[in-house]
Write a structure and sequence with these properties.
CATH architecture of chain B: Beta Barrel
CATH class of chain B: Mainly Beta
Distance between the termini of chain A: 71 Å
CATH topology of chain B: Porin
Strand order of the largest sheet of chain B: 1-2-3-4-5-9-10-11
Order of helices and strands of chain A: HEEEHEEHEHEHHHHHHEHEHH
Number of helices of chain B: 2
Helix content of chain A: 40-55%
Largest interface: A-B, 54 and 47 residues
Radius of gyration of chain B: 20 Å
Oligomer: heterodimer
Number of domains of chain B: 1
Chain lengths: 352, 203
């Protein structure tokens, strides 16, 4: 009887072992069609980088997600996947305490400074894996725009160029800007007779929030900005955001419960405890960024108002810089005008 | 984490020692083995193996109009080992093992409910290719992954097979915490569905 038990347990053990081995077996890298998940271990965090697309020229577009608390793969959509990945490789990176990052670090390690160092660590890992001749284009969206700028202010050597998409390089001033921009757009839309009741509530909200910053008031305005963008899409002022159904459902397969939990954690630390929207502004230091830069913004961006596009462009220290405003886009031009977005990004990458 | 690992290994060793001193046939009589699915159905899926050793048992016989009804309550030691993965992206590969106590009630229709408390739990994640960056140095991580203390609780139902005392199916809803995870702890929900059996085939 004991032999039978041992035999059965041995078979079960081998089955588990094989499951583990096969799930971890690496295939040889095909640079033409990269499909890799690698982890970057840095200062107590293990952060996944999902690398997809055409790496034959060793050109990598590194995308820094928004949030804080978004996830890299939320950008593997629309023309980023269908067109940009065909032009060059795209690296979707889950930041510290975000997406499916894991590790063991303290709250004190979750700050823009350490997270910027993580981005530099990612660049070193890509070059270690694919070669020092790899060309890295850094692209930050929203909060990723602040993080990308912070990383470049530490070290620009590893990057060929910078693409700032609706980047929050000055979170500190956002509260005041929300009040101005939301009031303006509300009055404009009421005059056009668009969603009048909604926009009237926005005017009331702007009048009722506190004169000085508070987290609660900030998020009321932030939510109104997001909702306002949906109203603009309804009225065809901006294009409706397109999210194509990813055929392999990576976002679902990548455990959104973990990602959501992490997201709440990082938001709590960076926004509520560290006062991101109250204390951080990189505007005065943007002049130190001297690599070629492209600023992309939606004309109807209420979340990071369009005023910041010109501010970023004017302050960037690069001699080779360009700005483009998407006429039918809100905060995410890659979703509102995906084809034009891909045109602009591919043109910039191939031109450098 | 090292502290948890040492405690876990000590208790596992004690448990093995205790079992080795038990009379063989008695041990098999008192032990149910289980094998089944383990995962969240959507995000990660895997296999779970385990054993339950009966510590205490109490049977109550109630006289009802339709005849006698026997209700059995058991306390069992529980040990389990599972592996799950999200095959495509390999960001959620891991081995989990835990130890604790089960309270189980079996009614006269062979239906079971059970509650598990597993204070001793360990989760080891297995990551794909990983690189560590320290200063300007980049090095490849050997056996990349991390260890977490992972206690758990489960609520479950099941049913014994006809004329079997220790065999049947089970469905458990498991909640565990991995800690320390990032700057806090990570709650994890999983489902376990499988079959319990006894090598003695006792009725």
């Amino acid at each position: 009887m004991k032999t039978t038990i041992l035999n059965k347990l041995t078979i079960a053990g081998i089955a588990i072992l094989l499951l583990g081995i096969f799930s971890c077996t690496k295939e040889e890298i095909n640079l033409n069609e990269l499909d890799e998940t690698i982890f970057v271990r840095h200062k107590g965090a293990d952060m996944p980088a999902y690398i997809h697309g055409n790496g034959s020229e060793k050109v990598f577009l590194v995308i820094l997600h928004g949030g804080p608390g978004g996830s890299g793969l939320q950008y593997r959509n629309n023309t980023i996947k269908s067109r940009i990945e065909k032009n060059n490789a795209v690296v979707y990176f889950d930041q510290r305490n975000s997406g499916n990052s894991q590790g063991n670090h303290s709250e004190a390690d979750v700050n823009i400074d350490t997270m910027a160092e993580d981005v530099l660590a990612l660049a070193k890992v890509i070059k270690a894996k694919f070669g020092d001749d790899s060309k890295l284009f850094l692209m930050g969206h929203s909060w990723g725009g602040a993080l990308g700028a912070a990383a470049l202010l530490k070290n620009q050597e590893d990057f060929t160029a910078w693409i700032d998409v609706s980047g929050a390089h000055s979170p500190k001033g956002m509260y005041e800007q929300y009040k101005v921009v939301l009031k303006e757009i509300a009055e404009e839309q009421i005059a056009l007779n668009n969603n009048v009741i909604y926009w009237q509530t926005v005017i009331d909200l702007v009048q009722n929030v506190g004169q000085n910053y508070s987290v609660d008031d900030f998020f009321m305005l932030n939510r109104a900005a997001h909702a306002g963008e949906r109203k603009l899409e309804e009225d065809n002022i901006a294009n409706k955001a397109q999210i194509d159904d990813s055929d392999d459902n990576e976002l679902i397969l990548n455990n959104p419960i973990t990602a959501t939990w992490n997201s709440n954690g990082v938001l709590d630390i960076i926004v509520f405890k560290n006062g991101l929207w109250e204390n951080v502004s990189l505007t005065d230091r943007l002049s130190e960024i001297t690599i070629p830069s492209l600023v992309l913004w939606g004309k109807y961006d209420l979340v990071v108002p369009t005023l910041y596009a010109q501010e970023a462009f004017d302050n960037l220290g690069s001699e080779d810089k360009d700005i483009f405003i998407f006429e039918k886009s809100a905060h995410s031009p890659m979703d509102n005008e995906p084809e034009l977005f891909a045109d602009k990004v591919i043109e910039f990458i191939n031109g450098h | 984490m090292k502290k948890f690992n040492i405690i876990f290994l000590l208790i596992a060793a004690l448990s093995l020692q205790a079992q080795s001193q038990t009379d063989g046939s008695s041990f098999l009589n008192q032990t149910q083995f289980k094998v089944g699915y383990y995962g969240s159905l959507l995000f990660d899926n895997g296999l779970n193996l385990g054993a339950e050793y009966q510590w205490k048992e109490k049977e109550k016989v109630k006289e009802k109009k339709k005849g006698q009804k026997t209700i059995r309550q058991q306390l069992l030691f529980n040990g389990s080992l599972g592996y799950s993965t999200n095959f495509t992206l390999q960001t959620d590969n891991g081995l989990q093992t835990y130890y604790g106590l089960i309270w189980r009630r079996t009614n006269h229709k062979r239906r079971q409910i059970n509650i598990e408390l597993n204070p001793l739990g360990y989760y080891r994640s297995f990551l794909p290719e990983a690189f560590e960056v320290e200063g300007n140095e980049v090095s490849k991580v050997r056996f990349p992954g991390r260890s977490y203390y992972a206690p758990s609780i489960s609520f479950g139902i099941g049913r014994l097979r006809k004329k079997k005392r220790n065999a049947g199916w089970y469905l458990n809803f498991n909640y565990s915490m991995r800690m320390p995870y990032n700057a806090g702890a990570l709650p994890v929900f999983s489902i376990q569905y499988g079959h319990r059996f006894n090598f003695k085939n006792n009725k």
